[in-house]
Design a protein that fits this description.
The chain is mainly beta. It has two helices and 21 strands. The protein has helices at about 120-125, 240-245; strands at about 10, 15-20, 25-30, 35-40, 45-50, 75-80, 100-105, 110-115, 130-140, 140-150, 155-160, 165, 175, 180-185, 190, 200-205, 210-215, 220-230, 235-240, 260-270, 275-285. Strands 6, 11, 12, 14, 15, 16, 19 and 20 form an eight-stranded antiparallel β-sheet that branches. It has an eight-stranded antiparallel β-sheet with strand order 7-8-9-10-21-18-17-13, with no helix packed on it. The chain is globular. InterPro entries: Aldose_1/G6P_1-epimerase, G6P_1-epimerase, Gal_mutarotase_sf_dom, GH-type_carb-bd.
């Protein structure tokens, strides 16, 4: 995504503007260190490109940007649960409108803060009072942090994921390493070598991954380091041919240039008492 080409609707500072992209409002960062974009719909990171380097984040060319359904690609915020633990799948945060809370900047980079709080609509789905904050820290690296706070009186259980789609040159040449000795696939625990390549659909929950996972991208002549905190798993996903072709918001060959490496609490195992908070984060650097 060429974020510099998006039409500007408001200038917030030297480095931060509000733009329109089809039916969604986007906070755009153009800084000497990097460019980036995050949608207010879903607090969804759409782009991060360090200066002089290739785009890091993959977006589907067929993504629905109407603001009526979850966006394919980028970094969806799966919250307050991951997967099909409840309805809607991956929670309601990724299809909710977030508010721009704050933006800060200096010569090293830009920080964007978006927030989401409970409403009658969210309480009908999940009966809890909460404040969720998404921090996007843009320098020559990208750090995304999801801070969940229990603002109610009763304890609440949460899970979730920062469902990062990475832009890669060729999935058949790509490997992901430092994934630990075990993964869950189809509900079954299996031993792991700690590495994986891609020659078929991969949908695995790695429960003992290192804090930093490495993605080798030889076609683009780079390594992507993904450092996760506050998680209990790293999810690795590529839909491969059949699933990619079956999805209306992905091109048939989309699987060839993306891989998901996700910082996740896959099992809703985080318990927050009244007033407590939890931070789930991922930091991406291109080497």
């Amino acid at each position: 995504m060429d974020v510099k080409q998006l039409p500007t609707t408001a200038v917030l500072s030297d480095y931060v503007t509000i733009c329109e992209l089809d039916g969604i409002k986007v906070v755009r960062v153009i800084h000497p260190k990097a460019t980036a974009a995050i949608s207010l719909f879903g607090a969804h990171v759409l782009s991060f490109q360090p200066s002089g380097k290739k785009e890091t984040i993959w977006m589907s060319e067929k993504a629905d940007l109407s603001g009526t359904k979850a966006i394919r690609g980028g970094i969806p915020v799966c919250w307050p649960w991951f997967g099909k633990a409840a309805e809607p799948s991956h929670g309601f945060a990724r299809s909710s409108e977030w508010a721009l809370n704050e933006h800060r900047e200096n010569e090293e980079g830009v920080i964007i803060s978006l927030t989401l709080t409970d409403t009658a609509e969210t309480r009908a789905i999940w009966p809890h009072a909460f404040r969720a904050e998404l921090l996007m820290e843009v320098t020559d690296t990208l750090k995304v942090s999801l801070i969940s706070t229990n603002t109610g009186d009763a304890p609440m259980q949460i899970g979730g994921a920062l469902h990062t789609y990475l832009n890669i040159g060729d999935v058949t040449e790509t490997t992901v390493s430092q994934l630990g000795n075990e993964y869950i696939e189809g509900g079954i625990r299996k031993p792991s070598s700690g590495n994986t390549g891609f020659d078929q659909e991969v949908d695995r929950i790695y429960t003992h991954a290192n804090e930093t996972v490495m993605v080798e991208d030889p076609r683009f002549q780079r390594r992507l380091a993904v450092t996760n905190q506050g998680n209990n798993a790293v999810v690795v996903w590529n839909p491969w041919k059949a699933l990619s072709a079956s999805m209306g918001d992905m091109a048939d060959d989309s699987y060839e240039t993306m891989v998901c490496v996700e910082s996740a609490v896959y099992d809703r195992s985080v318990k927050l008492e009244a007033g407590e908070n939890h931070t789930l984060s991922t930091l991406i650097s291109s080497q």
